[in-house]
TrEMBL record:
This is Acyl-CoA-binding domain-containing protein 6. ANK repeats lie at residues 415-447. Pfam families: ACBP, Ank_2, Methyltransf_16. PANTHER family: ACYL-COA-BINDING DOMAIN-CONTAINING PROTEIN 6. SUPFAM superfamilies: Acyl-CoA binding protein, Ankyrin repeat, S-adenosyl-L-methionine-dependent methyltransferases. Residues 237-322 form the ACB domain. GO terms for molecular function: fatty-acyl-CoA binding.
Amino acid sequence: MSDGRPVSGQLKKFVFRGKSTANGDTRGEYLEIKIPELLSAGYSFYTWPSAPLLAWYLWTQRRHLRGLRVLELGCGTGLPGILAAKCGARVTLTDSVALPRSLRHLSACCEANNLVPGHDIQILGLAWGLFLTDVHSLRPVDLLLASDCFYEPSQFEEVISTVAYFLDGTDARFLCAYQERSADWSIEALLKKWGLKGALIDLDSLSESSGVEAFNMAEAVLDYPDSDFSDDDQTPLDISFNQAAGHVRKLTSKLDNNQLLELYGLFKQGTEGKCNTPKPGWLDGRGRRKWEAWNSLGDMPVEEAKEKYILLVQKFDPEWSDERATKMSEQWVAVSSLRRSPEPELIHNELSLLDAAREDCGERVAELLRQNPELRHERDDDGLTALHWAADRDATKALLAAIEGGCILDAVDECGQTALHYAASCGHINSTKILLNAGASFLKDNEDCTPIDLATDDEIKKILEGAKM
């Protein structure tokens, strides 16, 4: 922690509390962070006033930090970053590469809070404005932190250029707390030069109501529920709309974020009408963009939104048409799309393993796996196995048959998701229980989300959390 020179020190404790009424518990949430300070060793060994303020703000947003990739610049004793790590974020703390003793002290601060450098939290020497190999490996980040980095005007542009580098081409945000030292100092010109925009956060209006979802932008158009109604219950417009929605799932890899957001907004307007949810909080960059895509449609009628959605799908894929989708009566169009019930006696012997899993034909699944055990490894173009399809459709007979037939329980698709991810995210209680009873693991997907992170149904969450204990 030191180079052998005697220094005076103290252990400072920062206590963060928050009310909690879950399950009748009124004791509240509590987090204590210990920071060893070396008062005579230099400015980077002392917790300056901006750091507790930034840490406090992060504490108010603690429910949205889990899983976020967080990078703190010039962190000194690292209070904000350590708090973010304790709240479940994946944190990298950086300070000047020219101050190795400061970096060693930073490691000591982490260890004082039971965070092991290199395992629970990362520490790296960094030079503002200098982008070496180690710096490139830090991208992408979700949240960039800095407390009191704007204390020396000659270094303002170095800080801003570093921030601009990490934010470029991403949905990341930069959160900074600073102490005003001179009314003549300003970073507005530098923000404009580097293509950035800044805004002050009103601390009096903090809210813990916003949420951060773990998904990539392609998933932004995929979060609508299963359609459980038949074509007989729908108008021709509804039928075309649902067919278009199913077809979109096959296009996501070909569309950019703006196209996906446009589709998302029209889908939400077409299914729920005018935007009826509060704007997500500051930390939820992706959620805010989704909300804005929906909210921007204002009072657009539901029928108009559906028509525009269909036309947009046809624009993005000119080869697609309602007639083509209708002819796919015995095929599948997408995960969580329209369910189809084959005529068992007529089609049973023609169903593939994946078809049988989708249609909940448990006997056919068992038969195929008995005849050819190697089919347990079969996948579709998106990496989905029979277990994935059965879990997605809550096809419990097929799911049990696939498990008993030896299908790999923790097989992952192209996004790193298992069948348990699918069952949890779709809210399928029976499928979730079946997979847990079979020993399914709580793996993280490519976005670092476990099935619990993706679950939105309270009962599903209780089941998963109970199984994980």
